[in-house]
Amino acid sequence: MNIVIAGAAETDHLGKLPHYSAIGLQLEAARNALADAGLTKDDVDGVAAVGMPGPVQVAHALGVTPAWLDGTGVGGSSFLFHVRHAVAAIRAGLCHTVLITHGESGRSHVGAGRFGLGADSLLGQFELPYGVFGPATTFTVTALRYMKETGLTHEQLAEVAVAQRRWAHLNPRAMMRDLITVDDVLASRMVAYPFHLLECCLVTDGGGALVVTSEERARALGVRKPLVHVLGTGESADSPIVSQMEDFTTSKAFRRSSEAAFAEAKIDHADVDHLMIYDAFAHVPIYGLEDMGFVGRGEAGAFIAEGHTSPGGRLPMNTNGGGLSYTHTGMYGMFAILESVRQLRGEAAAQVPDVELGVVLGNGGMFMSAATLVLANRRP
Amino acid sequence: MTTSPKPAPKPTPDTQPFWDGTAAGELRVQRCLTCSRHYFYPRPSCPRCGSGDVEWVTASGRATLYSYVINHRPAPGFQDDGPYAIAVVELEEGVRMMTNIVGVDITPENLRLDMPLRVVFEQRGDVRVPLFEPAGALR
Description:
The complex is a heterodimer.
Chain A: E1 3-10, H1 22-37, E2 46-48, H2 55-62, E3 68-70, H3 78-91, E4 97-105, H4 122-126, H5 143-150, H6 154-168, H7 182-187, E5 190-193, E6 195-196, E7 205-214, H8 215-220, E8 228-237, H9 252-265, E9 274-277, H10 283-291, H11 300-305, H12 322-325, H13 333-345, E10 357-364, E11 369-376
Parallel strand pairs in A: 2-3, 2-4, 9-10
Antiparallel strand pairs in A: 1-7, 1-8, 4-7, 5-6, 8-11, 10-11
Chain B: H1 16-23, E1 28-32, E2 38-39, E3 54-58, E4 62-71, E5 84-91, E6 96-100, E7 116-124, E8 127-134
């Protein structure tokens, strides 16, 4: 059974939205995605969402009585997991049409608590006592090791932000749009050495949603937008706390989830026209390019610096501007999927010509979990 | 009773022997009696071979610097520290843990990866947490 993304949309606005609650963002995104598909909430019988407010509240608020729920909450990659789980559930006949929602008041903290982890949690005992203060001080701790072992330079790390800003410059919805240079990045405020401000993601409010169903049902319901086929999916996990990650220079979860997705889709790297790699911080796309096998070990920094992922390059990557320049609510994975869908539909702000096949790599936590989607605007 | 405003860990049954160790001025890790490997963080079975036949041993306290960041936007309790190193060290026994580096000015030049370190302990509330300083450095 071919499974498709039939609806995909973001909230009307992204950025600083103190007049929205987290659930309000999810519901607006849900309505927008249903409208995008030309469907109504009565067509939905499956709901997936992360944490609090979770899938029960989303379904109840929308007036959907679900036959299937998924509340998988493994960080910013969760929505890729939801797509994978929805594919399996629809194929298994557990439900027919799944709505996946994301909305997070990541900047304004309206209607949703911040992460609260007890002093007796793993993090509370073995990382928080050392003054970690959010992802900028924990996700980043692997980078110096990677730099020592591969020779990645500070300038190459800065090039990641420069390359993505070139895309954001073309995207009116991106929060940061002015072109920047390596010198600008290295001159920006030091947040957590070796990371400068421009090598760290934005903090925004916003949301997005997807409608996943079978190709057959999408056609029967009269979905008018180009259908995006889910050709392959994969998921995996590494350590719940970054200090216990097996190897600081490579993500096991990136590798495992991508191998599974590529194998299921029966594709090779040369088939990929467009790539989204979750970029909470500038080193993450470097790990992604290598762990997915697009380049060899230690080659990703030069690959990006040479412009191959920039506009006009042979592997367009993070074409909305990414978490570094577009938006990052705290769980960016939904926005990576949505940009892939836009590119495959030919409706992206910075549209790449002739995109037929896209890959999305999602990260959760600090290299904690990962999922990969292979999407295409044609049938398998 | 809090003697420092820095965050203090709260032990669980699985981790109590670790924190009992630091209170006694020892760094304790677990070792699998089946495959002979050390492991960390504390848990009741070996993550390598799955055996539940494990013991607590006292580590040498010697380590090397595996990776770090220098945080310029301090967490609660760290406001008076200036930029400080959130580091991951590799113990002589082969396991890694997050910690802070102390006893040296915190600059990239002073913090070379793989440099030798040794454990020291700092009181945090009711428990003592392991920190590391350059081996041979004067305190």
